[in-house]
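Think of the structure tokens as a kind of shorthand, similar to the way a musician reads notation: each symbol stands for something richer, in this case the local conformation of the backbone. In the example below we present two proteins back to back. Begin with the first one, reading the sequence and then the tokens, and try to describe in your own words what changes along the chain.
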Amino acid sequence: MNPQSKKSALIRIPVCETDAAVVEILHDPTDPCSWIVRRWSKRRLVGKRLELSRWFNTRRQAETFTRRLDSVRENREH
């Protein structure tokens, strides 16, 4: 059997969604050390664009990073 034919589905965990961007955590349940944080910017006419993609070894690391992203966004708005 071809190993690529057995693709696992990533679990998407939405973290934050605003009018301008979406932040999500992705996880492959078959690989316990793959936690991915992605931030997409929303565009009016062409959909969304990937702005950031970072890989982490644990869910805790990924969640800590998303909190830092959120605090940076809040500081820019003030």
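Once you have a description of the first chain, move to the second and do the same.
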Amino acid sequence: MGLLTSDDIKVFTALAEGVKEDPEAAVKEVAAKLPRDIEGYPLLNGNLYGCWFSRCW
């Protein structure tokens, strides 16, 4: 679990299935779900987290 709070940062999330079968398609699917233009926020950053096990922890 994580917690993020800020008046200066906006956070968006997206999920995709099929990473093991086709990682490139899964990343493209996630990227397509995220907003491209956010008024007042000229910089965008992306972080990718993958869980490759049946249980992550």
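Compare your description with these statements about the second chain. The first helix runs from residue 23 to 33.
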